[in-house]
Design a protein that fits this description.
Largest sheet: 9 strands, mixed
Number of helices: 8
Radius of gyration: 45 Å
Helix content: under 10%
Structural class: mainly beta
Shape: elongated
Number of domains: 8
Distance between the termini: 43 Å
Strand content: 35-45%
């Protein structure tokens, strides 16, 4: 498939591949570079207008010859250029880290209608550090219930799973209690935070991750990390897997896995029959549902219908109902014992080829031991191997009361016997079998492999964990007999530490953890010395641990905690100023930690521009004044997330990251985007945002309208603006130049004998005049005279006609000496109302007028000055 064809496919199918998208940084979507430099977010790609889709498709085709300029970023923040995806395969390319050079420095953010009203600097959001470095790489939302924290290297499990190391604050200023979520290290570099109460509406969170120790070395930690994250789960849950198995002719259950946690209460139908509520079991944080008490024939197709399934955020499965077909698979293969290995000197680890029914394995008598003479060896409690997630590994211990090694005996050859009572999860039995294993007496002392510690967000020491080279059987509390501590100054601190870590130690595998009854802040460098016999291993003749020393660094106590109090940040809409009261003198100028460094402040995740911060002189350098530049806030936001970090006081103490929500107001001028003629005196204008209501407002001074290259001269009152019902971004402007009415021509008859004369149509008069007529008898006929001039000769009845000033006058029944007048009035032309000359090219330019009527609806910002658009016809 050539690139042009691929791009054509992408234009219609790539959006579908984003269906699981929810949240990421850099923002998820398509970045088109080159000369285009546009960013299409996932939301926009789903909801573009037809015209915007056409433009998007054309832009992709334009980039067909250089696909390195088109970068796709998924909801996890993974990304690659389309060229890399074609060359390496999508999955491989997306698995590689993004690089700053993948992106242009600035993209136009495309709206759903194809317009662009903001910019996105993706390059600044790509970390340029080395992959694998110990740091927080990202915090993202998986869905409305789960957040994900990605580290660059393996981290300490205890520290990573301590909820106190995560602060989650909502936009309304409330901080979630640590009981409101759980943290689980799902792999060595990934923590999933699960919220007790899912987020069901669009919510901005400020998340802080305290320094987390490296796995195996508490002296190496991540940097303090803080970010803001918008959580909005609009993605419907989907079915990930349907599985039904049997070892016979039918299966009794089916397991359904979903893409995310779901709510209890959906209806499940198998082959058209609803499964009773008691037979529906939700597990794995409600991501798995098992349907029980079924009879499903093997080898044939079955149908699962799911009705009304909701995820935690209330999104309904799509389509609803969803119907899936599945087949019951048959597994009649018996599990076998894959291996039998020594586990210390007094236990055996058995590994099966398949996941087992744990009850059949741990039931006494199903696995037995025999010695060299095939005499029974008393077995302790069989249990699953700690940490095994496969369900295939089990520990078979020799009972503690049995002596394996006496005198000079240092090795034993045992036989492990398996009965056919052992079954896998489907009921397939293990064949009766036996395997031999050699156990060797353990005479090696356990040694200390590492010492780690966990501190909470208040620098309180929560625990000290000692990891040994092998499993620990018993551990002694710390005492002056087995433990000593010296600080960096050589002062013996043993008594204080023993008193502090006085609780009974917790033993788990190779690790022993000491915790205080009440945690307190601890700082400084210490050398911990563990004397011989602190712990014993699990050997039959338990070996004492060897002596060992380890230096740890608990950090340096700050010179007075530097935290901002509630209400430290205030915002004044009239002046577009944020003031931050630090409560103490802070650094200023071009130095590290300066309060005048604009990048130390962000508003909704966007850093304030350079030069926007000064210190208020009257405050003794305690108050930072931030003047928000024009065009910075695109819309009113009652919960804008404002963050302060990295600022130092005059003694060099760095402020604890501060997050507050501010009710900020739009200070971005509305922009005229297009105009079109409705008729010869009316134009429709479209802006990039909702406009303030207008009703015949005088705006002749707020626009310049060009007919060709000539500006039409208008007063303010000669152009009126009004809102368009149902279209908040539009205004109608029409000319308000009144014409003058004309008067028609007319003619009237008057005088003493007006009744003898009549005018059928006076509208043909051509002049303004009054004519006086007399009827005279010339001896042979009656004549109508005007002065001495004869205008008409009448018949014997005194009838006749004549024309004067364009009108015809009829005389009827006239008699000698009759007189009358004819008055004519010529027509008067009126002046027409103002119109646009549609024979010429038209354009319109916006003029920003202080206090003008053309302003946005959110904060009365007058329109952007000097924007000229062509008026389409």
């Amino acid at each position: 498939m050539n690139k042009k064809v691929v791009l054509s496919v992408l234009s219609t199918t790539l959006v579908a591949s984003l269906a699981a998208s929810a949240f990421a940084a850099p923002k998820d979507g398509i970045y088109i570079g080159g000369d285009i430099k546009k960013f299409y977010s996932t939301d926009v790609l789903f909801e573009m207008t037809p015209a915007a889709k056409t433009a998007y498709n054309n832009e992709l085709k334009t980039m067909a010859t250089n696909l390195n300029n088109v970068v796709f970023v998924d909801y996890k923040g993974n990304g690659a250029s389309l060229q890399e995806m074609f060359d390496k395969g999508g999955k491989v390319a997306l698995g590689e880290p993004l690089k700053k050079e993948d992106f242009a420095d600035l993209y136009k953010v495309v709206n759903k209608d194809g317009s662009s009203t903001a910019t996105e600097n993706a390059r600044d959001k790509v970390d340029g550090t080395t992959p694998g470095e110990l740091k927080v790489e990202s915090v993202s939302a998986i869905n409305g219930t789960q957040l994900q924290v990605k580290f660059g290297a393996a981290v300490d499990k205890n520290a990573a799973e301590s909820e106190t190391n995560y602060t989650i604050k909502k936009a309304d200023g409330t901080t979630l209690a640590t009981t409101a979520y759980t943290a689980v290290l799902v792999d060595e570099k990934t923590v999933v935070i699960t919220l007790v109460s899912p987020i069901t509406t669009k919510t901005t969170l400020a998340i802080t991750v305290q320094p987390i120790a490296k796995d195996g070395d508490s002296n190496v930690k991540t940097e303090l990390y803080s970010t803001t994250l918008t959580v909005e789960d609009k993605v419907a849950p989907t079915v990930s897997e349907i599985k039904a198995e049997t070892n016979g002719s039918s299966a009794a259950s089916v397991t359904v896995k979903f893409s995310e946690p779901v709510q209890v209460g959906a209806t499940f139908k198998v082959d058209g029959v609803a499964v009773a509520g008691g037979s529906v079991v939700y597990t794995d944080n409600n991501t798995t549902v098992t349907l029980n008490n079924l009879t499903l024939a093997a080898g044939s197709n079955h149908t699962l219908d799911i009705v009304g399934l909701l995820d935690a955020a209330g999104n309904t499965i799509n389509p609803n109902p969803t119907s899936k077909t599945f087949t019951v698979s048959v597994d009649a293969n018996a599990p076998v014992v894959s291996s039998v290995e020594a586990y210390g000197d007094k236990a055996v680890v058995v590994t099966f080829s398949k996941k087992m029914n744990a009850t059949t394995v741990t039931t006494a008598g199903n696995i037995t031991l025999k010695d060299e003479a095939l005499n029974p060896v008393n077995v302790g409690t069989v249990a699953a191997l700690a940490g095994d997630t496969t369900g295939t590994k089990f520990v078979v211990p020799v009972n503690t009361g049995v002596t394996l090694y006496s005198g000079a005996v240092t090795s034993r050859n045992l036989t492990v016997v398996f009965t056919d009572n052992l079954k896998d999860n489907l009921g397939n039995k293990v064949a009766v079998a036996s395997k031999s294993v050699t156990l060797n007496k353990d005479v090696t002392a356990p040694t200390v492999a590492s010492v780690s510690f966990v501190k909470d967000s208040d620098d309180k020491l929560q625990s000290v964990t000692v990891e040994f080279s092998e499993a620990v059987g018993t551990a002694n509390p710390l005492s002056t007999a087995n433990f000593s501590v010296v600080d960096q100054d050589g002062v013996d601190q043993t008594a204080a530490w023993v008193s502090y870590l006085n609780a009974t130690p917790e033993v788990s595998g190779k690790k022993v953890t000491y915790k205080p009854t009440t945690a307190a802040a601890k700082y400084g460098q210490y050398t911990l010395s563990f004397k011989q016999g602190l712990v014993k291993d699990t050997a039959e003749n338990a070996n004492n641990s060897a002596a060992f020393s380890k230096a740890i660094d608990l950090g340096t106590q700050a010179t007075g905690e530097f935290k901002l109090g509630a209400g430290a940040a205030t915002y004044t809409a009239a002046t577009q100023v944020i003031e931050v009261n630090f409560g103490r003198a802070v650094k200023g100028g071009n130095v590290a930690g300066s309060a005048t460094e604009a990048s130390n402040y962000t508003l909704n995740g966007v850093a304030l521009p350079a030069g926007s911060v000064v210190l208020k002189a009257a405050s003794s350098s305690q108050v930072a004044v931030i003047t928000i530049p024009a065009e910075f806030i695109p819309a009113n936001d009652s919960a804008a997330v404002f963050r302060v970090a990295n600022v130092q006081d005059s003694k060099g103490v760095t402020v604890t990251p501060y997050v507050a929500t501010l009710d900020v107001k739009d200070n971005k001028a509305p922009v005229l985007e297009s105009a079109r003629v409705l008729d010869n005196d009316t134009i429709e204008l479209t802006f990039n945002e909702n406009m303030a209501a207008a009703s015949a407002a005088s705006v002749g001074d707020e626009f310049v309208i060009y007919e060709g290259t000539t500006a039409k001269t208008l007063t303010a009152a000669q152009l009126k603006a009004s809102s368009v019902a149902g279209y908040a971004k539009k205004l109608i402007v029409d000319l308000s130049i009144a014409g003058t009415p004309g008067t028609p021509a007319s003619a009237t008859v008057g005088g003493a004998n007006a009744s003898i004369a009549s005018i059928a149509d006076g509208t043909t008069a051509t002049a303004d005049a009054t004519h006086t007529y007399t009827v005279e008898d010339n001896g042979t006929a009656l004549e109508v005279k005007e002065g001495t001039a004869v205008v008409a000769t009448l018949n014997a009845s005194g009838d006749g006609t004549f024309t004067v000033d364009g009108v015809t006058v009829a005389v009827t029944g006239a008699a000698n000496t009759n007189t009358f007048t004819v008055t004519t009035t010529a027509p008067v032309a009126g002046t027409p109302a103002g119109t646009f000359d549609l024979t010429k090219d038209l354009s319109i330019k916006s003029v920003a007028v202080t206090g003008g009527d053309v302003k946005d609806a959110s904060n009365n910002n007058v329109q952007k000055d000097g924007v000229t658009v062509t008026i389409s016809k």
